[in-house]
Amino acid sequence: MVSQGTVSEVPVAGVAERTRPGPGDRLRDGLERSWRPVALLAACLAAWWAVTAAELVKPYLVPSPGRTLDVFAEKWDYIWQHTWVTTYETLLGFALAVAFGVLAAVVMVYSSTVEKTLYPILLFAQVIPKIAIAPLFVVWLGFGMTPKVFVAVLISFFPVVIAMVTGLKAVDPEMLELSATMGAGSLATFLKIRFPASLPYLFSGLKVAVTLAVTGAVVGEFVGANEGLGYVILQANGNLDTPMLFAGLLVMSAIGVVLFVLVELAEALLIPWHASRRGSAVTTTY
Amino acid sequence: MEITSEDRAEARTGRAGEGTDAAVRIEDVAVRFRTKKRDVTALREVSLDVGMGEFVAIVGPSGCGKSTLLKLVAGLLKPSGGGVWLRGEKVAGPRRDIGYVFQRAALLEWRTARRNILLQAEMRRMPAGQARERADKLIEMTGLRGFEDAHPHELSGGMQQRVALCRALLHEPPVLLMDEPFGALDALTREQMNVELNRIWRETGTTVLLVTHSIAEAVYLADRVVVMTPRPGTVEEIIDVGLPPERDYAATMARPEFARATRRIRDLLGAGSAHD
C-alpha cells in the first residue's frame, strides 16, 4: 500500500529504503497540522475578550476571560476537589465499559447464537436516549457515585462493543485458514491473530467512548449529586455565577481532551505499526 | 500420463499400503455449494495423482474451481463426493503437513518479516532454536537478508510474497500448496520469483501443487500441467512437460518442449471444452 512501486525490487542483501521520520520531521509535521486549529482557537479567544472588553454583552451573561481565570485562582481547591470526583467517575465508567464491551464483543463473534440474539438489540438500544435513563438510576441507586458511573458505562459501552465486533470480524479470512493449516487452536489464533488485528478498530471506538464517558458522568451529576463538576455547574447556574459556570465548562472539556490524548498515547504505544501507517496517510480521521 | 506419475512415485518411494503412497491423491471429487437461489457445482469428477517430490501446476479459466481444489487438499473444505488422500492418509480436517501460500501475502502487519515467518513455529510449538536456524536459512535462500526486521508495509509486493513463502516452508512441509502466489506481482518480479521457486523446489525436494493463470509460469515450473474445464471444473487434460528439473529461464523458454506444451495448453483453454 505504501510506495509499493518505488521500493526497488532487488533481491540482493541491502537495507530497504525506509522513510522513518526523525524527531525533527515529526515536530515540523505536528506544527504543520496544528497551526490552523490553534490559530482559530486564538481568534475565538480574542473575539471573546473583545466582546466582553467592549461590554457588548452584560458581564453577568458572558464573563470576560480575565474574570473566568480569576475564578480558578480564587476557588482552586473547590474546583479541584470536584474535578477529581468527575474524573474518577468517568474513568471507572470507562474502564467498566471497556471490560464489558470487549468481553461482549468476543462472545458475540465466537457464538453466532449470542450474536443473533444480542447484536440487533444492541444496535436498537443505540436509539434510546441513554441520558434519559439517568433519573431512573438515581431512584434505584441513590445519590452516591454509583448512578454516575452507571450512566458513564451505559453511554460509552456501545461504541466499544461495536468497534470491537467490527475489528474481530475484519480479520483476513485467509489468515484464519493459514492458522488452521498451522494446527493452531482457537485460543492461539485469537491471541496471535484476531485480537491484535482488531486493536486499531477497538482504539477508534475507545476514543469515542472516553469522551462520552465524561458526558455520562456529568449528566449523572446533573440529575442528583452533591459533588462533581455537574453539581458545580448547577450550583453556579442557580447563583447566576457565570464565571464559575464557564470555569466548570473549561475543566470538563479539559478532562475530555486529556483522556482523549491518553487513549491516543496508549494507541501509539500498543499498536505502533498501525499508528505509523496512519501517520503517513494523506488524511487523518480527526 | 497417469501411469508416468505412478511409476515416478513408485520409483521414488516404493509401494506401500494400498497403493496410496502418492503425495496427493484426488479421487472422483465433486464440490457443490448451496447458495440461496440455487445449487452450484464447482468441481465434478476430478481425479489426480501427484507423486512425491513432483511439481504439478493447475491452469484453467477463472471460476473453474482451481483454488477450491487446493482447499480440499489442505482439508479446509470438505468434498461433496469422492475423497482426497494426502500421503496415504484420507483428508478429514485441516492438515498440518502442508505449507500454504495465497495470492495475497496475508502477513501480520504488526510483526517483522522474521517474526511473520516464525508465526508458523509458534503455532506448531516448534523448538525455538531450531525454528530460528531454519528461518535464517530460508531468509538467505529467498534473498530476504537485510529485510528481516522490516514490517510488511515497508516491503514491496515481491518481498512480502517471499516472506509468505518462507513462512510456508519453515516446518519443511512434504507438500506445498500455492494459490496464484505471484498473481499480484509485476511481470519482471514474477519471472524472478519463478526462477527462485524452481531452485527452492529442487533444493527442498518438496511436492508442489501450484494454481496459476499464467501458462508460461505453469510450463516453466511444473513436471506436469493439469488443464481444467470451465465451471463445473474437471480435469480436461494433463500435459507432461518433459523438461529436466533444473531450468534456466531464457533457455527453457526457447526449448521445443516448452513451445509444444504452452501451445497445447493454449489450444485447450482457447477451445474450451469443445472436444469432450
From TrEMBL, chain B:
Keyword Nucleotide-binding found: yes
Keywords: ATP-binding, Nucleotide-binding, Transport
Domain of life: Bacteria
InterPro entries (UniProt xref): AAA+_ATPase (IPR003593), ABC_transporter-like_ATP-bd (IPR003439), ABC_transporter-like_CS (IPR017871), ABC_transporter_ATP-bind (IPR050166), P-loop_NTPase (IPR027417)
Residues that span the membrane, as ranges: none
Gene Ontology molecular functions: ATP binding; ATP hydrolysis activity
SUPFAM superfamilies from the UniProt entry: P-loop containing nucleoside triphosphate hydrolases
Residue ranges annotated for the ABC transporter domain, each copy included: 24-255
Name listed for the protein in its UniProt record: ABC transporter ATP-binding protein
Species of the source: Actinomadura rudentiformis
